[in-house]
Amino acid sequence: MLINRKTFIQTGTLASASVMLPGFLQALSRKPSVPPGNKVLVIVQFNGGNDGLNTIIPVTNDIYYRERPRLAIDKTKTLTLTDDAGLHPALVACKALYDEGNLAMLNTVGYPNPDRSHFRSMDIWQSGSQSNEYIYTGWLGRYLDEQCSGCDKPTQIIEMDDMLSLAMKGKNYSGIATTDPKRLYNSSNDPYYKQLIAGYQHGEETADYLYKTMGDAINSASYIHDKSQLQAAGKNYPATELGKNLRTIASLILSDINTKVYYVSLGSFDTHINQEAQQKRLFMQFNDAIKAFTDDMKAQHRFEDVLLMTFSEFGRRVGQNASNGTDHGTANNMFLISGALKQKGFLNPLPDLADLIDGDLKYTVDFKSVYATVLANWLGADDQKIIGKSYSKLKFI
Amino acid sequence: MPVTNRLKNQHLLWRAAFGPMAENAAALDTIKPADLWQLLLETSSSKPEKLEVADNLIAGLSNGVKDLVALDKAGKMDEETKKERQQKMRQQSKDDIRNLNILWLDEMINSEAQLREKLSLFWHGHFSCRVINSYFQQELLHIIRTHALGNFGDLLKAVSKSPAMIQFLNNQQNKKKKPNENFAREVMELFTLGRGHYSETDIKEAARAFTGWGFNLDGKFENRAYFHDEEAKTIFGQTGNFNGDDVLNILLKEKQTAKHITSKLYSFLVNEKPDESKIDWLSSRFFKSNYDIKYLLSDIFMSDWFYEQKNIGNHIKSPIELLVGLRRLIPLKMENDNAQLLFQKLLGQILFYPPNVAGWPGGRNWIDSSTLMLRLRIPAFITSSEKLNIRAKSDDDVNMGQTDAAYRTGGIGIDWPAVYKLFDSIPREDLVKAIADVLWQTGNRPEAKMLAAFVNEQSREDYIRTTILRLMATPEYQLC
Predict the structure, then answer these.
(1) Which of A119, A233, A357, B107 is the most exposed place for a label (fewest CB within 10 A)?
(2) B118 in contact with A at a CB cutoff of 8 Å?
(3) Across chain B, what does the average pLDDT equal?
(4) Domain final position from B212, B238, B253
(5) B169 and B79, same structural domain?
(6) pLDDT of residue A45
């Protein structure tokens, strides 16, 4: 065999066993390219199509109240942002972030020829494609391809999940999915896998690719596990799934891990029936987790390095349905939360409810503009190369 | 490594079928590949039995939507009841589709019509359709299984007139003066010519020809003449008052259609790296045969080049190929059917839920660190009681009925003796190689010395069983 079976190398300060890939599979092993203090992006995906109009409420809009006789939220109950807009009552922490100047909001973000199917619209958002093209890589996956070219651990992107979403799949590299770095480490740290890799001889291209992916996965799991042990996050996170996930993310941000993007989901916001209770429950989870996370980042003086962004595959229709819910719609709003915002509060006007297409909002900002802004101005990447087209940049960062 | 007779036969069985099965794998040392191919053709020669799952509520929509419409017209149904009924139907439909999924999987595993089911899986991805109506899906699957080895033109026409596809690609809404181009676009881009071989004008004109094609409340195709645009259309330079059938015939007259279908099949059956001269040769013969699918398949599987080393062991098994192949070699029953769906979901290929109209991209797209590491653990999950501690993503389109892995994911009643029998005549010191020869299509072979630490060496049976499971828990086993 080509390689001595016992060539385990020691990495990281906790010295867990990492696996050495045979030379022909091993690209230049680089030092983590992201020094501490560098900027990270945290994406919170609202699954199922969050109702944007009951998130940022147009409190002086008669059409809103007329179209939603039972679902509209009364002005006095909302958390006042401006004369014309209020936040959903459960989003107390977001209101506080707004008051501090750490929250920006984009209205009517979407894309041309919107698709109202969950899976298709989510694919469009995650791949960063046009609505009539099919792309099997994600916008963050393509960012990873650029970042990780020749690297041995694709840990620049971590999704807090057991399955990896399309957004994080690149052509050559894909992000790492885990809800629990320790469990990921335990399941991949099998001596059998290491023996397989050590004994593997150069073979057919596809087999090499699988071995390389396996080696990367084992190394990444070990690296993430090491880093997750280094720094304890704050203690005040709620015991919800989102709370736990943001706590794990915080502990990784506070370590010197090379991760640039964290991805986490919350849902389901698919509120066709009895929307009020469901949306409120999810917003309370979001609110409490976000409060703990932003407090933690502030206390650790890292809030200026963190940008948290929310999105959903679509918004919902302007008019409520007969079941006290709302059906699938189109354009929607996004939250941008950071200690380093250059523009705060509302970045563009509230939706024009008098100018609809078949009862749905018209988009005014292409979501790919938001991606381009984040890629270029926050992650320092070549947005045009990654998105495949040039989009005008926004100015919030 | 030389290409042995066994390797050639297994290659044929993995590409034209779902891999060798325990009961007949021993014969693969001796039978000639050409004879095995004839056997595959013969066993798939009969007409398939329809897999029926649709609940009465959904079947024909007759007891469902018709009722709803009647009640609604009579003004007897308030919005709430209507919504409730619709929701009930949706849930029933999803449950039916789940059953259809499991029934079809069973066919793939146990049916002797392996070639037909394998090609049906190909067409299921080619004519990718995602609608939540179990009756429509059931009928479309039957069309595909009926024509899978027949004439491509017949298949194309039957699929184009299936309510499933009409609904999925919005032809129900395609009416004169208000054309919907979705079907016309996809039929050219995906089903026949491929991207770049038509103009936007061709699509606009073809869409007008398809106006009126729809389905009725019985869930049957209906040519609604009153919605059809009777004006002249010009498609690929030909002008006439074309209807939908005319357009499909025009598309079939284009050699590019034969080329596109041949390229896709070559990638699925032979090698993802195209060999243009082979594809040209195959597609011109396919075209001349008037789209006889069996003729094209025979050209591929009777050729010498199909059995060349470079075409063997380089195809990443799709999740369905992996799960079905494993269960063909190791006969077992799943204790809980939901586990079969959970595996499909976690690995990224759920039958009847393709990602979009372009189907599953295949190849390296199946692989990321999560799916690869799970693939390595699946043999252990299926053959033991090891608990699967992995959750699938919530999906607002696909309600899989059960949440999480609260059920057992393992198989029961595993027929190990059938597997042991395969290796009866092999001396113990040759077992590792013999097992690898059955499981691995790649050129490398494992070292017994390395495996020793990871297998149970007590009895011969223990040794065979644990070696099989270890050799399945490898990157090599992901390839065929």
Answers:
(1) A357
(2) no
(3) 91
(4) B253
(5) yes
(6) 98
Q: Are the beta carbons of B442 and A192 separated by less than 8 Å?
A: no
State the pLDDT at residue A22.
56
Shared domain for B213 and B66, answered yes or no, is yes
Q: Is B231 on the interface with A (CB under 8 A)?
A: no
Structure tokens at B381: 């999950």
CA A197 from centre of chain: 32
Band of pLDDT at residue B398, cut at 50, 70 and 90: low
Which residue, B147, B135, B178, B112, is CA-closest to B261?
B147
A169–B365 C-beta distance less than 8 A: yes
Distance CA B362, CA B357 (A): 14
The answer to whether position B86 is within a domain reads yes
Chain centroid to CA B336: 22
State the pLDDT at residue A5. Answer: 24
Min distance B256 CA to chain A CA atoms (Å): 21
Asked, for residue B204, whether it belongs to a domain, the answer is yes
Question: Cβ–Cβ of A217/B372 closer than 8 Å?
Answer: yes
The pLDDT tens digits for A216-270 are: 999 999 999 999 998 888 889 999 999 999 999 999 999 989 999 999 999 889 9
- Average pLDDT of the residues in A42-49: 96
Interface test with A, best of B82, B318, B369 (most A CBs within 10 A): B369
Total count of domains within chain B: 2
Phi and psi at A176, nearest 5°, equal: -105, 135
Q: What is the pLDDT of residue B292?
A: 98
Task: Check whether B75 has a pLDDT greater than 80.
Answer: no
Q: Which amino acid is at B355?
A: P
- Nearest-Cα distance to chain B for A323, in Å, is 6
Contacts of residue B93, Cβ cutoff 8 Å, sequence gap at least 6: B54, B55, B58, B132, B133, B134, B135
pLDDT band at A33, cuts 50/70/90?
very low
Residue A193: closest CA among chain B residues belongs to which residue? B474
Claim to verify: residue B156 and residue B236 sit in the same structural domain = yes
- For chain B, the residue count is 480
Average pLDDT on B437-448 reads 94
Condensed to tens digits (0 to 9), the pLDDT of residues A315-348 reads 999 999 888 899 999 999 999 999 999 999 999 9
Q: Which residues contact residue A56 at a Cβ distance below 8 angstroms, ignoring those fewer than 6 apart?
A: A81, A85, A86, A87, A88, A105, A107, A333, A350
* Top-confidence residue, B20 or A150: B20
Non-local (6+) Cβ contacts of B422 within 8 A are: B22, B25, B26, B438
Q: Are both B320 and B222 inside the same structural domain?
A: no
What residue in A sits closest to B447 (Cα-Cα)?
Answer: A199
Residue A11 has pLDDT above 70, yes or no: no
Is residue B216 a part of any domain in this protein? yes
Domain that includes residue B387, residue range: 315-478
**Nearest-CA distance from A67 to chain B in Å?**
17
C-beta neighbour count of B227 within 10 angstroms: 18
- Given a contact cutoff of 8 angstroms between Cβ atoms, the answer to whether A222 and A268 are in contact is no
Phi, psi of B334 (to 5 degrees): -85, 135
- Tell me the H-state helices in chain A: 62-67, 92-100, 118-127, 139-147, 181-188, 191-199, 205-230, 241-254, 275-299, 367-373, 383-387
Domain boundary at B236, B253, B270, which?
B253
Q: Do B244 and B324 belong to one domain?
A: no
What are the phi and psi torsion angles at A80 (to 5°)?
-65, 130
| Arithmetic mean of pLDDT, B58-78 | 59
Instruction: Give residue-wise pLDDT tens across range B310-326.
Output: 999 999 999 999 999 99
What residues pair up with A335 in beta bridges, in sequence order?
A105
Is a pLDDT exceeding 90 seen at residue B374?
A: yes
DSSP per-residue letters across B77-123: --HHHHHHHHHHHHHHHHHHHHHHHHHHHHHHHH-S-HHHHHHHHHH
Q: Please enumerate in sequence order all residues whose Cβ is within 8 A of that of B143, keeping only pairs 6 or more positions apart, or say none.
A: B155, B158, B159, B162
Average pLDDT over residues B371-391: 84
Asked if residue B285 belongs to a domain, the reply is no
